[in-house]
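Hi D.,

Good news: the full-assembly prediction came through. Inputs first.
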Amino acid sequence: MTDLLGEKDKTPRTARGERTRRALLSAAAEEFGEKGFHEGSISGITRRAGCALGSFYTYFDSKDDIFRALVADMSGQVRDYVGPRIAQARDGIDAERLGLLSFLEFARSHKEIYRIIDEAEFVDQAAYRTHYESTASRILVRLREAAARGEVSGEPDEIHAWAIMGMNVFLGLRFGVWDDSRPVQEVAAIANALIERGIGSGGRDGNPDNA
Amino acid sequence: MTDLLGEKDKTPRTARGERTRRALLSAAAEEFGEKGFHEGSISGITRRAGCALGSFYTYFDSKDDIFRALVADMSGQVRDYVGPRIAQARDGIDAERLGLLSFLEFARSHKEIYRIIDEAEFVDQAAYRTHYESTASRILVRLREAAARGEVSGEPDEIHAWAIMGMNVFLGLRFGVWDDSRPVQEVAAIANALIERGIGSGGRDGNPDNA
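Then the structure:
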C-alpha cells in the first residue's frame, strides 16, 4: 500500500506483525528511556526486542520515526490506563482525583515516560505539543460536562485544564517517578481537595478539615 | 586559585571579567535556546558573544560546564525577577498570583527558558532537579508563612507546593511561550482563584462569581 506521498504504509496487517511492532515499541521505550534519543540506537532496539534489523524497517522508517510512534503510543497508553478509571468517578471532581491517582500509578510502573515525552520537546516538537494539547482538551471536556451537571461552578476555561494538567505532571514526576514513598491515594486526595474547593460547586467553606 | 581537586577557580575577579562571563551566558542562552544542547557549539557561543575562544576557557571548562552554569543562571534570573514582585503581595494567596503573573511576564520575554531548563533533564539531571526542588521549596516556605499568619488554612504540604509549581510551569508554557494572546493578568487571576478557594482561609463559598 502506498499513500499519496508515495510512502509505503507500514501498518501491520497480521496479528503476528502487530506483536512484532508492539515488541519494537516496548524495546524502544527501554532503549530511549535508559539512553535518551541521541545515545539510543536502532540496533539497541532490535537487540532488546530480539528481532532482525529487517523487521525494524518493515514497521518503521528510521530512529526518528519509531521515536514519534513511541510518543504517540505512550500518550495513548496513559489515556487508555486513566480513561476507564475516570469513568468510575462519582462526579466531575472525583474524576480529576481518579485521573491523578491512576496517572501516579502509571508513572510509578512506567518511570521512563517522563524521559520519553519530555525529550519529544527536542526531537519532535509537534508530538510533544499534541500530547499535552490533547491531554488538556480531555480535561476541559470533562470539566465542561461536570459544569453542565452542576458539579463545577463557573465556566471551565482552558486555564483550568492546563493548571490541572500541570499539577498532575509535576506531582507525577515528584511523587510517581522520583520518590514513591507517599501513598498515591494521599497525594491524589490532597491535590483533589485543592481542586474541589477551587472550582467545585459543593458550597464547601474553605476549611480543609471538612474536605 | 586552585580548589581541593586541583581545578582552577574560574570565577571572574574583575568587573570586566564579570561582563565577559555574562555575555557568554547570554550567548549560550541564544545558542542552546535555538539549536538545543547537542547541536549548539562553543564556537557558536563565542561568535554570538563576539569574543575569542580563549576567553571562553577563561570562564568555562567545556560545553557541559557552560550549560550547567546557564541552567543555574536562568533559575536565578527567574527567582530574582519574581522575588521582588512577590514581596509586594497583600497576603500569601496574592503572593502566588503575583508569582505566576511575573513568571508569565518572564516567560514571554525569555521564551528560550523552557528549552534550556527542560533539556537539563537530559544533559544535567542534577541541575534539573535542583531547579525544581528549590522552586518548590520557596513556594512551600511562602505557604507556611501564610499559614502562620492565618491566610492559608490547613497545613501546607509539599504536595501543595508541587501542585502550584506544576500549574505555573504549564500555564507559562501554554500562555507564556506558545501563545501570548491572553493577558497575563487574566491567566494569573483565574489560576489564583482556584488556589484562593482551594487553600485560602477566606471563608469563600466556592462560587467563583464571588472571587
